[in-house]
Amino acid sequence: MNLLDANDIAGTYPASWYAATAQALPPFAALDRDARVDVCVIGAGFTGLSAALHLAQAGRDVILIDAQRVGFGASGRNGGQLGSGQRVEQPYLEKMVGRDDAHKLWTLGEDAKNLVKGLIEQHNIDCYLRPGVAWSASTKSDVDELHEYADHMHQHYDYAIEKMDGAAFETICPSPDYKGGLLDMGAAHLHPLRLALGLAQATTAAGVRIFENTRALRIEHGTRPIVHTQNGKITADHVVIAGNGYLGGLDKRVAARVMPINNFIAATEPLGDDAARVLARDVAVADSRFVVNYFRLSHDGRLLFGGGESYGYRFPTDIAAKVRQPMSQIFPHLKDVKIDYAWGGTLAITMKRLPYLSRLAPNVLSASGYSGHGVGTATHAGQLMAHAITGQSDGFDTMARIPNTPFPGGASMRTPLLSLAMTWYAMRDRLGL
C-alpha cells in the first residue's frame, strides 16, 4: 500500500477547511515525454516549491513533479504554525551537537521563519499571516520547564519569550486544562494551502515547469541522474528529493530514517461570540503533551484543532470523533459543537525529531522529516538545497551534520515499535506524569 493512494482520491485535494477557502490553481499537465533539465525536483510541497523557486531565480532550468497536486500533502493540510528555531528545544540541541552548532541551528531556524515571512511579502501571498504562538502547559512541572526554557533563550540567545502564569495564560486561552505557558510573538500562524499555492504561482512565474499527476518511480544514479516516471524520464544534472511522508521506497537510506505518520485536524462551525472562550487573542497554541494538541482560530471564527496521531496507513473512518476527544478535554464546553470539516494528513518524523538533510550522491540531495515543524523548516530546506547546488553549501552542511539514526526494527517493525512507544507516552499525558 502506498500512502499516495491510501487515503485520498487521485488528483483531488482533501475535503478540508483549507481546500474550501483557497482558490485552487488550474491543474498542471502530467509529464508525457522525456525531458532534459538542469534540476529535477520531486515533490511540490513547501520543500520542493522553495527549491525550484530559488533554483530558477539562480538561472537554472527546473522541472518540478508531483504524484498528486501542488500542496497536496502535509504542506496543504498542516496546523499552519510557523515556529521559532528548530523542532526541539535549544538545551537539548546543545547536548546533542554542541553549543556552537546549536547556535548555528537556532540562527538557521530564525532564517527559516524570516524566509517564509519574506516570501509572503515579496510575492503578495494572501495566506492570513498573523503573529504569535503560545506554548501551554497542563501541569505545574511543565510550566516550570517552559519558564526555564524562556530564561535560557533570553540569557544565551537574546531571544525574548513572554512567561505566563495560570492567570496570565487564561487571558489568552481560558481553558481549564492549562496552568500557564509562554507566548512567542516572533512566531506566527497562517493558511498553509494558500501559502503553497502562492509559492507555486511564484515558481511558475520564475520559469519552472510543473507537472502534476507525475509519480517518480525510481532514480537511476550516475553522472547525470535519471528520474523515471510512468510516462517519461527526466535526465538532470541534479535531483532534489522532497517527498517527505510520501517518499515511499524511492530511496532506502532516507526511508530508514524518515517515517510517515498520520495526524488529524477538525474545523468547527463558526463560533461567533463563543470564540472568545477559546482564544481571546489571535494567536496559535501548542501544548506540552508528548502527543501534541495544537489549535487556533480561523479568519471566519472557527476553531481549527489538531489532535491525535496514528501509525498505520489508513485514516480512521471517523476523523471528527478522533479529534473531538482531545478537543473536548481542552475545551469541555465544546464537546457537542458541530464539526464542519475533519481531515487527515501524512507528515514525516525522525528519531530525534529533527529534519534529515542528506547528499545521497554528489548530485542528489534530499530533505524531509520535519516532525511537525515544517512550515518554516521545509521552506528553508528547499532554499538550502538550492544554495548547495549553486555552490553555497554552508547552511545545508550544518543541517546535514545533525545526527539522524535509523528507526529500530527496519521497515517492517518500525511502525509497531513506534506505535507501542507512543501509546505509552499518550498514557503518561492522560495521567499527568
Detailed description of the structure:
With about 425 residues, the protein is of the alpha/beta class. The protein has two domains: about 5-80 and about 195-260 and about 350-420, 3-Layer(bba) Sandwich (FAD/NAD(P)-binding domain), CATH 3.50.50; about 130-185 and about 260-345, D-Amino Acid Oxidase, Chain A, domain 2. The protein has 13 helices and 17 strands. It has helices spanning about 5, 15-20, 45-55, 90-95, 100-120, 140-155, 165-170, 190-205, 250-255, 320-330, 375-390, 395-400, 410-430, and strands at about 35-40, 60-65, 80, 130-135, 160-165, 180-190, 210, 215-220, 225-230, 235-240, 260-270, 285, 295, 305-310, 340-350, 355-360, 365-370. The strands form two sheets. Strands 3, 4, 5, 6, 11, 12, 13, 14 and 15 form a nine-stranded mixed β-sheet that branches. Strands 1, 2, 7, 8, 9, 10, 16 and 17 form an eight-stranded mixed β-sheet that branches. A hairpin with a 3-residue loop joins strand 9 (about 225-230) and strand 10. The protein is globular, with a radius of gyration of 21 Å. The relative contact order is 0.19. The model is unreliable at about 420-433 (pLDDT under 50).
